[in-house]
Protein: Aldehyde dehydrogenase family protein
Amino acid sequence: MKAYDGMYIDGAWRPAAGPDVIEVVGPADEQVIATVPAGTVEDVDAAVRAARAALPAWAATPPAERAARLTALRDQLHARRDEIAATVTAELGAPEKLSQAVHAGVPVAVAGSYAELAATYDFEEKIGNSTVYHEPVGVVGAITPWNYPLHQIVAKAAPALAAGCTIVVKPAENTPLVARIFAECVHEAGVPAGVFNLVTGLGPVAGQALAEHPDIDLLSFTGSTAVGRRIGAIAAGMVKRVALELGGKSANVILPSADLARAVNVGVANVMSNSGQTCSAWTRMLVHRDRYDEAVELAAAAAAKYADRIGPLVSARQRDRVRGYIEKGVAEGARLVAGGPEAPRPQGWYVSPTVLADVTPDMTVAQEEIFGPVLCVLRYEDEEDALRIANGTVYGLAGAVWAGDEAEAVAFARRMDTGQVDINGGRFNPLAPFGGYKQSGVGRELGVHGLTEYLQTKSLQF
Structure:
């Protein structure tokens, strides 16, 4: 076990204000792998003051120079990919292949995309007799989740830095180790002192202090809708801007003309990725009644193949939460066709890849985010019924549509109340805007839309 010390504040690792530490526990073996400081209100205040002091110079830094620092950051992340992947595997439990490709690979691409945007975005434009300037919003407070611990930091820090903002990041207490690597990469990339700051700590202490700090201009949060509501309320009381990426209950709509086997197999893979700990996972599979039984059989067979492929859940609490949902689903009338709540291994916080059939739209498992390797299969009568079910939750983050004809799938997707839809297995695009409708959030991440979240406009008339 390694005991890490200090917070990254004003360009250096500084001792924490208090003596308390957070134990980082490996989900695969339930052993403590490290400790990090538990940040206090004083630590958060020091970080915010450093960010505020660094803001004028960084905001005035030419975009080309900000782009150069982001390019250097991308290169640092790429050089440490193996270390990053191993760290995520240890603290999150993600399988090595997933850690390499997604947890370590995607942040490199996202950082690189913002290096390019910083160099090419038009921060000044002419509109009639006005010159409009796109300026940094100021000091950003970012609270990031544990499920994609590095990606979510990069998806906030990179556009903030590209825009000319300074930032304080409070990472999830379950997965703080990769955040420390990111801070080291920022330092080696030559980002000026105070522009990026990192405070590890508990949500009710460090997270709350960051959300309530009067010198934060924008709060960016990714996590549960319940916490997002609280952060939104705090921000509203202080008239602060917010960017919230929250929960999801995304529908995977398989229209009758679709290649059923491919749609089901890809759909199951989507749900099982990252052990189901993905807010945009297609956790509701909607199948026409005439092909429903075949789809359930295919889904059960596909899920069984993931028994030895997926990692554990992040914590005992999360494991118990997911098991509770499975039990509740069965109690409410769902039919268990794969997996179940029983522990598949004697050690580690594992949950079996699970498929629940005969799920109806009013069931708890069809309405609430489970955040584990659990797929719900629902039947629909016709296209209008499928649309009603797809749109019938408080969420609207992502989704998928499958059809033999692409135009048919697009027409259906355009009527879905959700922020991002994959057509016939469309690939992830790190430049496309990501974010939700309804209670799935406010604002967008990634690409140029993610950059504009960290900008405000000023017009001069001549």
